[in-house]
Write a structure and sequence with these properties.
Layout lengths: L1 H32 L3 H17 L6 H13 L3 H13 L5 H13 L3 H14 L6 H14 L3 H7 L4 H4 L3 H13 L3 H14 L4 H28 L3 H31 L3 H13 L3 H10 L2
Length: 291
């Protein structure tokens, strides 16, 4: 009789707990749908606290919903905690991985951001945000110097990228570092048609023209100093006919970049270019700003 009463009591407690959980879940849902994220989070956190105080875990959807409410409240640390907990109890959804990737980007954790993006791509090829995920993943591959992974991903982005300077810029960085110059030239030209002030493309052309001119100048000057013949002198003059216009192209791009953002790196290049042009005043001006 006593055992029966005890069992009935336990069942009653479990039923009450279940009813309370259901009520809190529903209250949270109503609050969330009304954009009342504070009340929604408060309701769901009561469920989490109740479960975890008993040494258990709440269900995945509760952690996920709590994380999304916290994210809407710009409580990124709490959002990360709950979304990671949802993942740990095997909850999965496109929004989970997209949200985690967004948080990891905010806190500058590139490796975890890449993992979240790759998981989204692996699990949800038809997901609503797959294009955004692929575009951001390409950018992270460029940032993390995973050149080959970027090249492998490119076919999934190529069509969309034709009118997107951001995606093209990521792919330009990858190809530049792989020394795929034919592709890089095409990409840089295409980017500047879409965005005349695109930093990545302007830097590509500025550096490309500088080193073309500089390397040719140094090579031919050295050759002439080693062999001061009429033939070598004429070869030098012919080379300089290419050098000066190419330096001017580089200068034009670096001046545009410097106007957009006066970086020391740009000033350093400009100082070198004006030195080659024997313009001491401007060379001194930019060399001073390069320090």
């Amino acid at each position: 009789m006593k055992i029966s009463t005890l069992i009935q009591g336990l069942i009653l407690v479990l039923l009450l707990q279940s009813c309370a959980t259901t009520q809190l879940t529903n209250e949270g849902e109503l609050a969330y749908q009304a954009n009342n994220y504070e009340d929604a989070l408060a309701s769901w956190e009561k469920i989490i606290e109740s479960k975890e105080s008993a040494g258990k875990k709440a269900k995945g959807p509760i952690y996920f919903k709590s994380g999304m409410a916290a994210l809407n409240l710009k409580q990124d640390d709490k959002a990360r905690k709950y979304l990671e907990s949802a993942k740990e109890v095997d909850f999965s959804s496109p929004e989970l991985y997209a949200s985690l990737a967004s948080i990891y980007k905010t806190i500058d954790n590139l490796s975890k951001e890449i993992t979240a993006l790759e998981t989204y791509r692996e699990k949800y090829q038809q997901g609503e945000d797959i294009d955004k995920v692929n575009a951001r993943l390409l950018a992270t591959y460029a940032e993390s110097e995973n050149w080959d992974l970027g090249v492998a991903l490119w076919p999934e982005l190529e069509n969309k990228a034709q009118t997107d300077a951001g995606i093209l810029s990521s792919y330009l960085i990858i190809n530049k570092n792989l020394k795929n110059y034919t592709i890089s030239n095409k990409l840089a030209k295409q980017i500047l048609k879409l965005d005349a002030n695109n930093i990545t493309a302007l830097e590509y052309y500025a550096e490309k023209y500088f080193w073309e001119a500089e390397n040719l100048y140094v090579t031919e000057m050295k050759a002439y100093k080693n062999h001061r013949t009429t033939k070598q002198y004429n070869k030098l003059l012919k080379a300089l006919e290419k050098v000066w216009p190419t330096f001017k192209k580089s200068r034009s791009n670096f001046l545009k970049l410097y106007k957009i953002e006066p970086k020391k790196e740009y000033a350093k290049y400009l100082g070198k270019i004006y030195t080659r042009f024997d313009d001491k005043k401007k060379a001194a001006y930019y060399n001073k700003r390069a320090k």
